[in-house]
């Protein structure tokens, strides 16, 4: 299996929520993405996986339009329209973002943090509507963060904080959600709860794209993008044999993908003997 600069297309009938073509990202003289192309299916959950430093977060930021203009080239389309052509507010309603180590005021209480997710729906300086309050409550309950709605973000544990930030991303009610390592600091029950939330979003017509290190969870996704060294090595249906082969290869065959009790899992392999 060779490196693919422009991986295989989706079947012709599949709608594409996000598309990147020949995306290159630079930081100074260093090239972080070497002309990446991806097509991420609408109304599906895509997992972006690969080793540390492969360029996963860089790609996700490019897809979200968060790379500084001078640092990248190429084309990104959101729901069929070039990212740059989207009016700012419409784009903020269509695409929700959960980043890593986001700078959010530590003094804000959790409720107000989640209310920030409603901003794209609110008129300038208008107070939140009853609907905004209802959505915030629903999202805090979904991520099981309602109990500490009055507590400032800075007081929360890593996992509690992550669940508040996840609630904020959900509160946007965007058609497309991009999440960078959403499971960071979450314990196993809340990882499973996150997966159920994502599956619910997809069932109701949303598109979710997540960078994940937890391969057991990533293997439950619909579509997978496997990255290595600033390139996309493979993209395709998560359960396809060639996707599993790419995944094993990119992790240097230190994992094997096996089905146990009907679920695909990544099992560690023993180190090669010398
Ligand atoms: N602003 C920057 N300046 C220089 N190099 C950068 C910058 N941002 C990222 N990099 C480098 O680009 C490469 C890709 O980084 P990126 O964060 O996209 O990787 P990743 O696949 O998300 O990694 P991880 O799994 O460790 O989070 C890394 O080698 C990183 O050191």
From TrEMBL:
InterPro entries in alphabetical order: AAA+_ATPase (IPR003593), ABC_transporter-like_ATP-bd (IPR003439), ABC_transporter-like_CS (IPR017871), P-loop_NTPase (IPR027417)
Domain of life, per lineage: Bacteria
Protein name per the record: ABC transporter ATP-binding protein
Source species: Comamonas jiangduensis
Pfam families named among the record's database cross-references: ABC_tran (PF00005)
Coiled-coil residues: none
UniProt KW keywords: ATP-binding, Cell membrane, Membrane, Nucleotide-binding, Translocase, Transport
GO molecular function: ATP binding
SUPFAM superfamilies with a match to the protein in the record: P-loop containing nucleoside triphosphate hydrolases
Record's function text: Part of the ABC transporter complex HmuTUV involved in hemin import. Responsible for energy coupling to the transport system.
UniProt xrefs under CDD domains: ABC_Iron-Siderophores_B12_Hemin
Domain ABC transporter: 18-254
PROSITE patterns: ABC_TRANSPORTER_1 (PS00211), ABC_TRANSPORTER_2 (PS50893)
Record has Cell membrane as a keyword: yes
